[in-house]
């Protein structure tokens, strides 16, 4: 979200977001490093969203150029059965949380009243497969439902969960949910880098705010730099300082010294007062 309170036809108002009036930007980032691969500025609803929906169209456009056999993770705003199938047809695996009111979901994922004998105990899960999609519901502190085309229904692993007393305990978790948790932080990591040293400035021109976001390519440069250098030695702040000094390259707009015989107004007043005080 790029903050902007001025006038623009594609500015969004989202009352539940920390930044309520802003430009919405769809982005795909690397899950481990936060490297920004591709982004798209949301300019409002158009006719292309009528058939499959906004979330479907956004993911298909943003993931259009990803390499084959890539795992893509997204949240429940985007996840749907049609999206998972079409990504799989393009040799792209996907995993994402899903809302219980989506179309074509199995009954076990829907929020229907079930007898107590059918309810899941804590850390139990149930799964249903209809190739190529696997639907999983896991009971953590609350129900977690995901769709995946990259995991088998019975694949599990041990994960650490924080208990009420603050201790960490290993519990059994479906591998699809654990993989989603590990893969979902790429965009958040990019936002963390962007908010650590913000360069945006107030402006009534909407394109200026978007330009400051595009200059966030500095973050991509820093991530790429760390691939060939020791990241613990070169911190983010030091990288930005050295980059700024290299771009400036001793350039200055400072004017030369004032010409001789010309005095500033404040100095002239002081000199006159000095003469009057000590005039003999």
UniProtKB/TrEMBL annotation:
Keywords, alphabetical = Membrane, Transmembrane, Transmembrane helix
InterPro entries (alphabetical): PGBD
Q: Name one Pfam family in it.
A: DDE_Tnp_1_7
Domain PiggyBac transposable element-derived protein, residue spans? 1-222
Q: Where are the transmembrane segments?
A: 206-225
Entry annotated with the keyword Transmembrane: yes
PANTHER family referenced in this protein's UniProt entry, alphabetically: PIGGYBAC TRANSPOSABLE ELEMENT-DERIVED PROTEIN 4
Q: What is this protein called?
A: PiggyBac transposable element-derived protein domain-containing protein
Organism, by scientific name, is: Parnassius mnemosyne
Q: What is the lineage of its organism?
A: Eukaryota, Metazoa, Ecdysozoa, Arthropoda, Hexapoda
